Amino acid sequence: MSIDLRVKHDLESRRRAVELFDAGVGCKPAAEALSVPRETVREWQWVYRAFGSEALLSMGGKQSRYTFEQRVAAASAVVDGGMAKADAMAEFGIRSKSPLERWCRLYREGGAEALRPRPKGRPRGSRSKPGPAPASRRSRSAAA
């Protein structure tokens, strides 16, 4: 039995959110009706607008991996091209607003090179240098 512990809200809550969005209900009333934080409902609405109800109902699966080219294209479209984030999510197939916002911030700070993947972990040969060896008992007693 495999339970995805990353999913905070059950499928029924998201299914009810789809019904509310279809009925034209906004974020605040939907959040109150579902007893879910407003920011969560706002994220659901982004996904619903960009990808439809299927994407919203299948949320919480495995994280997507995006290539360097996808990251640069999406970030430059939003930052340089003025594209709306929801439109960029739909065009480039980005399932969550969080990585797109992070890519835009990095793109503004360091350009396309800031989005290039970096190696994970500690660099080779970066071990800390050993400190001075502790003095032995004989050398301490001789010094006294």
Main beta-sheet strand count, sense and barrel state: none
Mean pLDDT: 80
* Strand and helix order: HHHHHHHH
Gross morphology: elongated
Class computed from helices, strands and strand pairing = mainly alpha
Helicity level, as a percent range? 55-70%
Poorly predicted regions are: 1-6
Strand-residue fraction?
A: under 5%
Radius of gyration in whole Å, from Cα? 25 Å
Number of continuous helical runs: 8
Number of strands: 0
- Distance between the amino and carboxyl termini: 68 Å
Structure report:
Residues 1-6 have low confidence and may be disordered. The chain has 144 residues and is mainly alpha-helical. Helices cover 56% and strands 0% of the residues. Among the domains are: 11-57, no CATH class; 68-114. It is elongated and about 85 Å long. It has 8 helices and no strands. The termini are far apart.
Any key phrases for this structure?
disordered N terminus, 8 helices, 144 residues, mainly alpha
Topology:
Blueprint: H1 11-22, H2 27-34, H3 38-51, H4 53-57, H5 68-79, H6 85-92, H7 97-110, H8 137-143
Summarize the structure.
The protein is mainly alpha-helical and 144 residues long.
